[in-house]
Amino acid sequence: MGGRSKAWFRQASPIIFIFQPAPLSSSDSPLCRACMEANETPTHVLLQCRGVDEQRAAYLGSPVSLPEALGDLGGLLSFWSELGWLE
């Protein structure tokens, strides 16, 4: 059983977890912790949130779609790290 779990983990991409519909925040509120204007979803944070405009531009440029935002894994990890949201 333990080997089966490890095999699944090796095969699963960490990016899969970015697409979870639940809020990224661990708080009880679904609102984005950067802008408090919309629900905190991956699409909102990576493409729309005005509260992280500077960080997004610095690490990801100006992505217009999720595939474009996810295209630079190093930039993506740096972006989340800069926000302090890699918990």
Q: Which properties best describe this structure?
A:
87 residues, mainly alpha, 5 helices, 0% strand, globular, disordered N terminus
Q: SSE order in H/E notation? A: HHHHH
Number of alpha- plus pi-helical segments: 5
Low-pLDDT segments: 1-23
Mean model confidence by pLDDT: 78
* Sheet with the most strands, sense and barrel status: none
Per the principal axes of the C-alpha atoms, what is the gross shape? globular
Secondary structure: number of strands: 0
Strand content: under 5%
Helical content class:
40-55%
- Helix/strand structural class: mainly alpha
CA radius of gyration: 14 Å
Overall number of structural domains: 1
Organism: Pararge aegeria aegeria
Protein name: Jg14375 protein
Walkthrough of the structure:
The chain has 87 residues and is an all-alpha fold. It has one domain (25-87). It is built from five helices and no strands. Helix 3 packs antiparallel against helix 5 (73-83). The longest helix is centred in the last third of the chain and has 11 residues, at 73-83. The two termini are 27 Å apart. The model is unreliable at 1-23 (pLDDT under 50).
